[in-house]
Structure prediction request, 700 residues.
Amino acid sequence: MGMLIDSRSKVLVQGITGRLGKKQTKLMLEYGTDIVAGVTPGKGGETIHGVPVYDTVQESLEHHDIEISTFYVPAPSVEDAVNEAIEAGIEFGVIISDWVPYQDEMKIKRAALNSEKFRYIGPNTPGIAIPDEIALGMLSSPSVMTDGNVAIVSRSGTLTDEIAEELTERGIGQSVVMGLGGDPIVGTRMVEAVEMLEKDDETEVIVLVGEIGGTMEEEASEFIKENGTKPVVSFLAGRSAPKQKQMGHAGAIVRGVKGTIKSKIRAFEGAGVEVAETLWEIPDIVEKHL
Amino acid sequence: MEKNIFHVITLHKNFINELVIQFWSDMRLLEFEGKDIFQEFEINVPERILIEQRKDLDEAVEKIGFPMVLKAQVPLGGRGKAGGIKIVERESEAEKAVKELLDNEIKGHPVNYLLAEEKLDINREMYCGIVGDDKNGSPEIIISSEGGINIEEIAEKSPEKIKRKRVDPYKGLKPYQCRNLAKELGLEKDGFKAFSEVLFKLYNVFEGCDAKLSEINPLVETNDGKFLATDSKIIMDDHSLFSHPKFEKKKDRHIEDELEREGSEKGVNYVDLDGNIVVMANGAGLAMALMDLINKIGYSPAAFLDTGGGLSEKRMEDSLNLLFKKAHRDEGVKAILATIRFMISPPDAMVKGLKNALQKKNVDVPLILIVRGRKRYVDSAKDLLRDTDIEIYTDIEQGVKAIKEHISER
Prediction:
């Protein structure tokens, strides 16, 4: 995954003085991530776990070389913070913040596309990690991930971490573990992640973890069918969810799932991607390809 | 791959559609709420009266007269075909229709309101909608010189009648772009002017409501040359409801199950189901994967609960209380399977919440706890729970299989 991040990457934490920012900065530092600065407007001059805090991204870049920023700012400020990072010259963003307004997500996407240089994952992503090298976000447990050649790309949060651990327990290491983010508009779509991993020398097998909704799995399947050279294994959570009687805040998760999961399974299978029926099967199928 | 307009428009039609699922958590406003918003944004709407009960009809008769259109207010499309729209000619007919509509459900939705409207003499029906393009980071404008209930058919059979344009969300949609679009539809004179103005206002609705979708179908031209939105569709964004408190308060109005409502109030994602094993996890994907495992071993989920991230003492306690209530209410529940993954938070808060809930547990249903994730937190959780008699596993397979043993023992 050299094209995005590696152990030498210099990292900024925007929103470092907040509860979540502070907590995760500590865990990322423990993992070995080279966090060189943090930003919280009005908190310039403080230090958090030994990391200097600045008022603006611009100011942090005057003192440090930084390529990556992780975002822990409150949802209504995310769009502003991302634009600040883009304008200051940050190249890669990991937007951990969740509950970002839809139209702000649309603007963030547009700003990134307009900038040409800036790429990002999230919002609402658990982050990205290269085991034993660098952790950006919540995927930062040394006991869960080990170095290896299987890439995990997931739309889920805790499930991403769980699958990494299932593989680790089986003695299968990972080249990269990444969450794309759980919202409709994300910075890196599944197909873009697969394209990158196709070029990544460390990755031999790709595990795609999908969900109901959207068209990311179908899109990725098309690319794999045409251009894929590496074995891909997939898992879709929620295939057994029964149809629901009512449209609820949560109820609709379950409603109509069957059809859509089916369409995703069809797309994957049509592209030669083996679909694991349960969590337990993932390591078995991956193992066959190593 | 271009997003098919068909997908946008079939929102009217069914729920097995990807866009509908994408909007699963979002609030779709009722027609009258959307029309009130249209009116605020100066889009013309028909004369109308909201009917909540029989006596409201008098005002409608006085203000609107006959013929009158009575429309059931339900958050879904296709209500006309489902009998949710009635045209009445006299008072006795109206009374009968009001009673019928309010007493019956439309595709499983209770009807709490009717909208009474004047019947228009329609010359033609058009379509305009605005929806986000997720791949491109732009709102997309979709318009058609023909609209109405057959819009899906039009999209399929005569795609040339439908025009689309993406706009930069930072610049918005400009009046001149609306005029250009109206020209593209071949509109002239009054129609040209009226359509471009309505489109501009509809974009303001999209922005002003922080909506995921705003749509007028149909936009009607009457025989006497008036342009009116005779239906409204606005899908709000859950993440933006904080800036629309009027609707935020109504967010749970469609939830009928008591426990689902309690879940929503407590900020957890609870779905009531009919099976025998209650499944809980701190993450929706993980909870769904567990449901699949429950099915795999021959049982079925009785409920789904996603506590969400950053599990606090209170949320853990509330979640378990909710599940105990479910087990109490529903005799079919044989076990509760809770899986907590520790990623960034130490287990102290979770354990406290768990212990609080256990003290009040009043059902004889086994609780099986699986703890996984960051090793030092898992070890500490096991340590902190040593003084309880709760069954703890650190392996999902063992935890799930323990359910089987429990059930066969009982």
